[in-house]
From TrEMBL:
GO cellular component labels: membrane
Protein name: EGFL6 protein
Pfam families recorded: MAM
CDD domains: MAM
InterPro entries membership: ConA-like_dom_sf, MAM_dom, MAM_domain-containing
Species the sequence originates in: Dryoscopus gambensis
SUPFAM superfamilies, per the entry: Concanavalin A-like lectins/glucanases (SSF49899)
């Protein structure tokens, strides 16, 4: 229903991907798909990313893996404040390998704020403890 767009980082040292709270209508969806290549079958990986949901009733952020289309593997629907947080998802490869990760933004009732994603990293092995 709408696109993710680059937004300037507060420090002025690059960009992150964002959906402003005023874009679209309630329950509209925007998807950002990242292709994964050459993942080894029967291996484990950790997807680490920074995210924020800033603004009252801004909406939901979900993450889907290509081989598990029916349900999100991660979801957040409210931000406690405007701070960036870290999300971690363990990806266990079976015989079929995951070939993409999709970040899905669902528009809420709020008219201000934004949903943002930054610093997406895929590492081999299990996710590290905090």
């Amino acid at each position: 229903d709408f696109d993710w767009n680059p937004a300037d980082r507060d420090r002025g040292d690059g960009y992150y991907m964002a959906v402003p709270g005023f874009v679209g209508h309630k329950n509209d969806m925007g998807r950002l798909k990242l292709l994964l290549t050459d993942l080894k079958p029967k291996s484990s990986y950790c997807l680490i990313f920074s995210y924020r949901l800033a603004g009252e009733k801004v909406g939901k952020l979900r993450v889907f893996l290509a081989n598990k289309k029916t349900a999100p593997v991660w979801e957040e629907n409210k931000g406690k404040d405007e701070k960036w947080r870290t999300g971690k998802i363990e990806i266990f490869q079976g015989a079929e390998t995951t070939n993409s990760v999709t970040f899905e933004s669902e528009r809420g009732k709020g008219k201000t704020g934004e949903i943002g994603v930054d610093n997406v990293i895929l590492i081999s092995g299990l996710c590290p403890e905090d």
